[in-house]
Amino acid sequence: MTKGNLHSSLNFPIGAGAGGSFAAYELRKLAAETNTPVEITVYERESHVGGRSTTVNAFDDPAYPIELGASIFVQVNYNLVNASRDLGLNVYSADHARPKESDDSIGIWDGSQFVFSLSNGYSWWNIGRLFWRYGMAPLRTKKLVKGTVGRFLRLYQKPFFPFSSLSDAAAAANLLDSTASSGEQFLHANDVDSLFAREIIQASTRVNYGQNLQLIHGLESIVCMATDGAVSIEGGNWRIFDGALKASAADIRLNTTVTGIVRNEDGSASLSSKSNTATEQTHETFDEVVIAGPLQYSDISIQPSLEHTPDIIPYVNLHVTLFASPHRISPKYFGQDSNSQVPETILTTLPEGLDLGSNEAGVGPSGFWSISTLRTVDRSESEDTQQHYVYKIFSPEQPTAGFIAAILGLNDETVDKDGSIGDLSKSDVSWFHEKMWNPYPVLYPRVTFEETLLAPGIWYTGGIESFISTMETSALMGRNVATLMFQSWEKNGLKSDHGAGSRAKTEL
Ligand SMILES: Cc1cc2nc3c(=O)[nH]c(=O)nc-3n(C[C@H](O)[C@H](O)[C@H](O)COP(=O)(O)OP(=O)(O)OC[C@H]3O[C@@H](n4cnc5c(N)ncnc54)[C@H](O)[C@@H]3O)c2cc1C
């Protein structure tokens, strides 16, 4: 097929996560507004849409969807909020299913004691107890969050949006002072007291990014405190990306891995892909390519080399353990008397005086980043009749059977303590699902970010992860590259009107 239309273009995002689906969604919108014919093909090596927004079903029952990956977004995440509304999805408060059986919903554990606990799930600010312990620090932090989020939101609008250089856009929005320093330095420079920083803000950077304040940069530390209006999508956050892709009318090729890209002299790109069930490669040519996810994990060979090759950077190793049990978390494990209830969400921090510097393996004495009680499940229709609790653990290592037994207060001497959760009796752990993720980069302070255009016709969304790593920012970057791409066609169109010719010619 030969396409000679001025703006007609074939485009393929690699990856059906937030970045790829929003690139397709935006491109379709821009094309529709201008009556431009565009064909969009999306390649996804997994069997499902969503990327790191992945939902699994507790007890394999669709009535109990649980986020294995990205779990919440917030009210200032306008791309996700607006798309949820436009796609007709139901949005829930992030903790809507959480059992409210204990007085304190959040406790912050330092490995030997709860240094602070509070009863309000996702908003840090309206709690008297917070001010009593930390003085002005919460107010100062709130102000800092407001100012930083306000500067970040400038990237959503002209003249900042679309941005061909994230580094330049971040500089123009006055955000580099926050990315250039560690969270600890940035908070100190803004007069936020170190007790509040360690006990509250660091608990948040640890649960959200598996990193301490001495390591993670200031901007991402502040993002962790912007939790107002935390929500998730009924049935799973992946539905936003599924809806966006469907609305883009893309040809979605699941179970298909892109293995190579050859950049042709005419600016088009030939890609090789392989269905997960076939042995033979397929080859197709496209006008534009969007690599929508971290290039370093995509296993794509690119010839000739890119003009801008993204650096390989360290990503966090995060073990997510979902499991169900008829037992509540044991107060004994947390040094409390047997009648008390431990908080439904246990966040962690480092004990006072423990300096792990900018150590990437900085979990410290707690050994885990967080333990959350997500919901209850009524199993009365199955063989047993109990109510079961569904828990989520974030940890840098796979939790052992001994650890799970200890937090559930089990005294089974026959259990191999170094074994895995599957070694525990089904009457104690009735369902589980484990996954090791590389969920986000180690967010070292930095002032430059990867390019959006890696070579002519090869776009990249993954550079935004070192700046802010969330579903929203990947969605923003997807929209950004789609808009830049569209503008480049318009520019070429103008050139074409003056005799330079169209670049949207593709042989398939
Ligand atoms: C446990 C966990 C908790 C998190 N919590 C939150 C949270 O609460 N809120 C939040 O906003 N964010 C959270 N995040 C981060 C968030 O999930 C990511 O920032 C975001 O989803 C990234 O989207 P993306 O599209 O850039 O990348 P991805 O979601 O990784 O999508 C890339 C896609 O590309 C596909 N792909 C890669 N290579 C190829 C290839 N060669 N061929 C075909 N397909 C390919 C992959 O299979 C993948 O589906 C969390 C992440 C994890 C893992």
Structural class: alpha/beta
Number of domains: 3
CATH topology of the largest domain: FAD/NAD(P)-binding domain
Largest sheet report: 7 strands, mixed
Residue share in β-strands:
15-25%
Strand order of the largest sheet: 7-6-16-17-18-15-19
| Small-molecule components bound | flavin-adenine dinucleotide
The helix fraction, in percent, is 25-40%
CATH C-level label of the largest domain: Alpha Beta
What would CATH call the homologous superfamily of the largest domain?
A: FAD/NAD(P)-binding domain
CATH architecture of the largest domain: 3-Layer(bba) Sandwich
Mean pLDDT: 91
> How many individual β-strands?
21
Q: Which parts are unreliable, with pLDDT below 50 for 5 consecutive residues or more?
A: 1-8, 494-508
Radius of gyration: 24 Å
Give the termini separation: 5 Å
- Total helices: the number is 12
Cofactor: FAD
Protein name: Prenylcysteine lyase domain-containing protein
Pfam family, one: NAD_binding_8
Keywords: FAD, Flavoprotein, Glycoprotein, Oxidoreductase, Signal
